[in-house]
Amino acid sequence: MDIAKLAGVDAVKLVVMILQAARTARHNKKTCQQLVQHVQIIGDLLRKLQSSEMMQQPEIRNGLNELEQILREAYMLVTSCQNNNYVYHLFMGGRQADQFRVLQNRLNSCLQVFPLISHIDTADRLDQILEIIRPPHRRTEVYREVKKRSIQMNCAEALKFSLAQLVDATNNFSDENQIGQGSFGCVYKGQLHDGHVVAVKRCFDLPSSPNQLDVQDLEFQNEIYFLTKLQHTNIVKLLGDCMQGSERILVYEYMSNGSLDAFIFGTMYLDWPACSQIIKGVSEGLLYLHKHCGLHVIHGDLKPSNILLDSNMHPKISDFGLARTYSPGVEEEFADRIVGSIGFTAPECRERRLFSIKSDVYGFGALLLEIISGHRCFSLASGESGDDHGFLNRRAWHLWRAGRLIKLVGAPLGDESETERTDILRCIQIALLCVEENPANRPTMQEVVLMLSCQDVTLPMPQQPAYLKTGMVLAH
């Protein structure tokens, strides 16, 4: 492609084109990947700021025009590395390496004058940007101050409620106010004195088993620890707590549309635009937990009942009782106990007690399959067969292999338009990538968000899903 033909292509599209071209580079692969790291960060920043008024400022537009020109040249250079001719590589390889160095320097210079940094609200992302644009002797000093401000901004203190306040708000925890129940407590709708409507989760009376008591207390403290530090539109807000005598109570923002579980398996149905909005929102919430919150969080129990929906059907990830932090750079870590819910727990967690961000990716894939099919992703034990953790995995896989993936789509989504059906089938393919047996083959949430938000990204072919050998499901 001639560079002139790229003149009308915007920066976000150019980023996608560069990432795709780099996958098939035959020469200078290492240098291509270094360039890709820069380009991915730029793409993330641009998507974050696309709808911002800041993008209309003259100095930003000028910087963006220069950036687009550099990205066009970067795309042409990466595609030149796809040439398979040995003689071409022999004579052009050195020149390409020089061009890469020049482009990297221009890219860094452009970022230095492109004032995006002050609008990025996570220490993790700032760490990446500063690593690129700051001289080595300044990186540590600047990053320390930025991270300090970020932590101060994100660690909001939860309010302390008295038991009397919450008894009054929930009409003494009446049955009429109860809106849900989990393994450790009941949830009530409440109204505070200022008129604010809240959700009040009251833990059950402490059990007699000492071990059970430890687990309950751990999950209660976990919830407070994480939700006072996490601030994202797709993470539920914890407003406060009450610890008085044996009472353990948490107070959240009220989600008027309840849980996603009620829509998938209840009498209310979602059309595809609503499903798509929920899927993308959950993916962005998970990406925030894994990469952008600064804490490196694994949720550990992603499932429809833990996805709450506000009045506009925007999803909020809830229930951080099983959440944990992970060490960046460490692929897998060992858990002291098996956690998670049947059907949503990755095989490496259930069988070897190993967890990673890819464990959450597995749960996200299982969630997608449930949303699209309208069926549970698991089958409970019958006789001596044991619980079936991969019921939907196998059904989706066999239908994929048979070229009949549309058969997986549930009845509520059966009347969608041709364009929407194409989008649904694409989401099933993404789900199959997420539930692959080998965690190393599963995409990261950053890759999932890109695949969901950009139709131009070519999806890899799925490989064997987890729990494939547990029972058989035919592609009917």
Automatic annotation (TrEMBL):
Stored CDD domains: MLKL_NTD (cd21037)
Top-level class of the enzyme under EC nomenclature: transferase
Subcellular location: Cell membrane
Membrane topology listed for this record: Single-pass type I membrane protein
GO biological process: cell surface receptor signaling pathway; defense response to oomycetes
SUPFAM superfamilies in UniProt: Protein kinase-like (PK-like)
Keyword tRNA processing: no
Main location: membrane
Residues the entry annotates as binding ATP: 201
GO cellular component terms listed in the entry, alphabetical order: plasma membrane
Catalyzed chemical reaction(s): L-threonyl-[protein] + ATP = O-phospho-L-threonyl-[protein] + ADP + H(+); L-seryl-[protein] + ATP = O-phospho-L-seryl-[protein] + ADP + H(+)
PROSITE patterns cross-referenced by the UniProt entry: PROTEIN_KINASE_ATP, PROTEIN_KINASE_DOM, PROTEIN_KINASE_ST
EC number(s) recorded for this UniProt protein: 2.7.11.1
Keyword annotations from UniProtKB, A to Z: ATP-binding, Cell membrane, Glycoprotein, Kinase, Leucine-rich repeat, Membrane, Nucleotide-binding, Phosphoprotein, Receptor, Repeat, Serine/threonine-protein kinase, Signal, Transferase, Transmembrane, Transmembrane helix
InterPro entries: Adaptor_Cbl_N_dom_sf, Kinase-like_dom_sf, MCAfunc, MLKL-like_MCAfunc, Prot_kinase_dom, Protein_kinase_ATP_BS, Ser/Thr_kinase_AS
Residue stretches making up the Protein kinase domain: 173-459
GO MF, one example: ATP binding
Family classification: Belongs to the protein kinase superfamily. In the C-terminal section; belongs to the protein kinase superfamily. Ser/Thr protein kinase family.
Protein's recorded name: non-specific serine/threonine protein kinase
Origin species: Panicum miliaceum
